[in-house]
Amino acid sequence: MFKFKEYFRPSLYAAMYTGALVQAAVGMANLMSEQVILAFSSCPDETGAAALAKALVEEGLVACVSRLPAMQSTYVWDGVLKDEAEVLLIIKTVASMLPALTARLLQLHPYDLPELVTIAVNGGNEPYLAWVRGCATAKDLKR
Asked: What are the domain boundaries of the chain?
């Protein structure tokens, strides 16, 4: 009969397990900072949306911003029901860039309270995800 404790010395097993946990924690920290995310924000018009998208990409905060025009949003603002046309921005970046992205979006956005919500990308075309990771570096474009 196989006896686990006789086959693995407890101290060696504990050291191996602890080392694996440390490696996993370091790996998770790296994954979290390089986690590709999608951020969503809405703008009141195409001109403002285009200017915001261009600034975020040029400044290296994001890899790409897709603009979807003719979105209709229904919401309550200052106690009044609104139904407004907006442009939806789908922003591709990495989690480590979120604080800088948030700060810059708040500076540039025309709304008093701009939408910015994110979701993690849990899979996809890995070469594309690698491209997103490589582009979102907070470095200005080479001109």
From this structure: 36-135
